[in-house]
Amino acid sequence: MGSFTLCDVKLEKHFKGSIPIEGDDWQVGVIVGRSGSGKTSIAKQLFPDAYIRGFEYTHNCVLDDFPDGLETGEITKALCSVGFASPPDWLKSYDCLSQGEKMRVDIARALCLDKPLIVFDEFTSVVDREIAKVSAYAISKAVRRSKKKFIAVTCHYDVVDWLEPDWVFCTDTMMFDRKKGLGRPLNSKFIGAALKLGRCFGSITISAAPWLQQQDATQQSTRTNP
């Protein structure tokens, strides 16, 4: 799929490798790891046109915020497919919804976009964990009923159980593994062992940014020459 290098303002993080999914028959993937491990940077660089972190909502009814040209039936079908099947709540504005409802509206809206691939960051990050699991299961089923591909970018390992992905890339270990046909699933109970059997692409090396190196040199000079 390509190579990528991670960089931020204070630290430089370098990682070269690939997520070998081109040509594979898959629909659901997961990029998972602790906060600050590079998930967002990798997702943005590898999938810039598919990357989604959220949407802007301006109407008093969430149905009116969906893409123009969609029939109401198509919108409500998308909402039901991700586990948000409450017509009274469909008439509310986005700000009046719960965190769980907001996430499901975001996913439903993403699935309605004219895009073959959706990369959704902060997946279930602000949702109660039980709601997150149920939502992840419904979303996985909705994606698999469609012709789209979906990549969840998350710091929560628990949703892997419910998404039942075709592949997982873990930024904690920088390792990739894919589901082996009808073999064992990729889930949180087995992900540690599974990733050990996967392919390691490299490691992140962190070096101080030039301005930090210059600051350290100045401090060292001051200590040496009072």
Key features of this structure:
alpha/beta, disordered C terminus, 35% helix, 226 residues, three-stranded antiparallel beta sheet, Rossmann fold, 8 helices, seven-stranded mixed beta sheet
Describe this protein's structure.
By secondary structure, the chain is α/β, with parallel strands linked by helices. It has a domain at 6-50 and 115-224: Rossmann fold (3-Layer(aba) Sandwich), CATH 3.40.50. The protein is 35% helix and 16% strand. The strands form 2 sheets. It has a 7-stranded mixed beta sheet, with helices on both faces. The protein has a 3-stranded antiparallel beta sheet with strand order 1-2-10. A hairpin with a 4-residue loop joins strand 7 and strand 8. The model is unreliable at 192-224 (pLDDT under 50).
Order of SSEs, N→C?
A: EEEHEHHHEHEHEEHEEH
CATH topology of the domain at 6-50 and 115-224: Rossmann fold
For the sheet with most strands, the description reads: 7 strands, mixed
| Fraction of residues in helix | 25-40%
Task: Give the helices and strands, then pairings.
Layout: E1 6-7, E2 11-14, E3 28-32, H1 39-46, E4 51-52, H2 72-81, H3 87-90, H4 99-111, E5 117-120, H5 129-145, E6 149-154, H6 158-163, E7 167-170, E8 175-178, H7 191-197, E9 199-200, E10 205-208, H8 210-224
Parallel strand pairs: 3-6, 3-7, 4-5, 5-6
Antiparallel strand pairs: 1-2, 2-10, 7-8, 8-9
Helix pairs in contact: 2-4, 4-5
What does this entry show, briefly?
By secondary structure, the chain is of the alpha/beta class. The chain has helices at 39-46, 72-81, 87-90, 99-111, 129-145, 158-163, 191-197, 210-224; strands spanning 6-7, 11-14, 28-32, 51-52, 117-120, 149-154, 167-170, 175-178, 199-200, 205-208. The chain contains eight helices and ten strands.
